[in-house]
Amino acid sequence: MSLGHDNDGFGGGSGQTRTRLPEGGSGDPYDGTRRPPAARSSRSLITVVGVVVLLIAAIAFANRGDGDPEKSDANPSAAGNPTAATGVRPVTGKNGPIPKGFARDEQGAQSSAVNFSVALGSAEMFNTARRNEIVNAVYAPTVADARRSDLDKVYSDKGFLSRIGLQADGTAPDGLTFISRAIPVGSKIESFTTDRATVAVWYSSLFGLAGEGSQNPVSESWYTTTYQLEWVGGDWRVTAFDQKDGPVPVGRDQAASSAEEMADAVDQFGGFTYAR
User: DSSP string of 9-75?
Assistant: First the structure.
C-alpha cells in the first residue's frame, strides 16, 4: 500500500498529492506448498560472515563511550546518530486512529509523519468510515476536503478494487485475508521551523491477499514519502506529500511463507505507536 503515486490513472490531484496503490499480481503461489529455498553459494556464506563481522563492530562502537552524558548528541536528526532514542516517551493521546500530542519540535514532526505513513498505508483506508477518520486526523483542514474527495474516487472504483482482488465494498473475498501495512524504517528532517516542517519517511509496504487461490499474493515494496507538515491546532498535520520508490534492499534467499502463515500473521501481530 502506498500513497503519493499514480496507479493505472487513479490520481489523487496534483503531483504532490497523487495516490497510487500496488498493482495486482499474477500466478498463484498460495498452492499449499512451500517453495524450497535457493541453494546457498559460497558468496552467500561470505555475505553472512561479513554481516556478522559488521554487527560485532556496530555493537562494540555502540558500547563505546567516555562516560560523560553531557557530550551526547541530543539532536534526533543528527547524521551520526540517526536511530538513537531520545528518551522522550510516546504520547498517550489519539486523534481518531492517529496518535497525537507530539512535541512542536523536530522529534515531534518526525514521529507524527511516521504515524501518518502507517495510517495512510493501512487496510483501514479501504473502509469509508475509517478512511474519513484517518483523513480528518492526518490532513490540515485547508486540504482535508479535497484529499477526501480524491481518495474516495480511488477507493470506491470497482475496476481498481477488482484488479487487486477485493470486492466492490473494499473487503476481501471469503477465505482470503487482505493485508496492507506500512512498516517504517527511518525518518529525517529536510527542513524545520516551529510552524512548518518537511519530513522524509523511508518504509516498506506489505500488500496483497493471503489465502488459498489468491491471485494477488502478499508482496513487499519500498518507498520514501516526504511530507509537508504544518502546526495546526496544537498538532502536526499534512498539507502535501511526494513519494518515490526505494531505497530498495537486495532480497534474501528466503522461501515465501504459506498462505496460512501470512493470514495468521496479520491477525496475531499488532501495530505500534511510533515515536522518534
Answer: T---SSTTS----PPP--S---SS-PPPPPPPPHHHHHHHHHHHHHHHHHHHHHH---S-GGGS---
Residue 256 lies inside a defined structural domain of this protein = yes
Which residues, other chains included, contact 260 with Cβ-Cβ below 8 Å and sequence gap of 6+?
Answer: none
Give the containing element (helix H, strand E) for 215.
none
Neighbours of 200 (CB within 10 A): 18
* Domain coverage including residue 273: 1-24+89-276
CATH assignment at residue 123: 3.10.450.50
pTM over 0.85: no
As a three-state string, the secondary structure of 97-128 is: CEEECCCCCHHHHHHHHHHHHHHHCCHHHHCH
pLDDT digits (tens, 9 = 90+) for 113-146: 999 999 999 999 999 999 999 999 999 999 999 9
271 within some domain: yes
Give the count of beta carbons closer than 10 Å to the beta carbon of residue 145: 11
What's the CA gap between 91 and 160, in Å, rounded?
37
Determine the pLDDT at residue 264. Answer: 86
User: What is the number of domains present in the chain?
Assistant: 1
CA dihedral 120, 162, 218, 9 (to 10 degrees): -60
